[in-house]
Amino acid sequence: MATPHDIADSATSISALTAARDRLIVALDLPDAVLVRQFLPRLEGQCRWLKVGLELFVAAGPAIISELVESGYSVFLDLKLHDIPNTVAGAVKTASTLGASLLTLHAAGGPHMLHAALDAAASMPKAPTLLAVTVLTSMNSQQLHATGIPQPPSQQVELLARMGLAVGMRGFVCSAEESAQLRTICGAETSLVVPGIRPAGVALDDQQRVATPTLALQNGASYLVVGRPIVQAPEPASAAAAILSEMASALQT
Which residues are registered as beta bridge partners of 190? Predict the structure, then answer.
């Protein structure tokens, strides 16, 4: 017979797993809607958050967002908007009609662009939470230097985050290497979305600044974005379940 302690432990584990599901975003790095429809049943309901990036959005258009939302998923629309303030403001308004819950834009667009985006979102009844992308996880110091930025990623991430905070941004995308630093700067209420998540032993692909799910959560991540380790796995549901289990364990410690 289960003891009260066993029941409490089981309830805690279930609660941690639920929290993990609320914080794992599966990146649909697939080239068209047909492959998405074939892939989603293979997740077997393990995840509720899905990311639609440029590849899929260009192929399938806005309709894929509505389709996923109507299927019960929460959608992270990762378009990384970066243009003049008026253009980005217009794109934010249009994106706000699609049903996505999160939307990215590049912090490098500057304070006027970020401010215009925030004003546009505030004018819409169901706008997504805006996330300012700091430095892509595919970039290291060498890549930054090639673009004329002399400081290392950590310093550039902090500079962009402080700029974003000053104009009212309350969500950022960064690597796990900077998430603890940003959590201290931004406080508990700011959303930190961390891509470049790779379980131990998984190929890094084109990512440079990566971390395990445990380390990312310990460093203050609000959401973890995982693409190829799940999408390209022979059994996506099992791969997702393993990551969720690791996340749940990290959230219990």
Answer: none
> Residue 238: which residues within 8 A CB-CB, separation 6 or more?
none
CA distance 128 to 108: 20
Under CATH, what is the fold of the domain 25-252? TIM Barrel (3.20.20)
Of the candidates 94, 251, 106, 216, the residue with the CA atom closest to the CA atom of residue 172: 106
Do 27 and 195 contact (CB within 8 A), yes or no? yes
Cite the active site residues. Answer: 80
Nearest to 78 by CA among 143, 182, 171, 145: 171
* pLDDT tens digits, 20-58: 999 999 999 999 999 999 999 999 999 999 999 999 999
Report pTM: 0.90
User: Strand 24-27 and strand 223-226: pairing?
Assistant: parallel
What ranges do the domains of the chain cover?
Answer: 25-252
Least Cα distance to 192 among 230, 219, 222, 153 occurs for 222
Residues recorded for the chain? 253
DSSP symbols for 83-125: S-HHHHHHHHHHHTTTT-SEEEEEGGG-HHHHHHHHHHHHTST
Distance between CA 156 and CA 149 in Å, rounded? 8
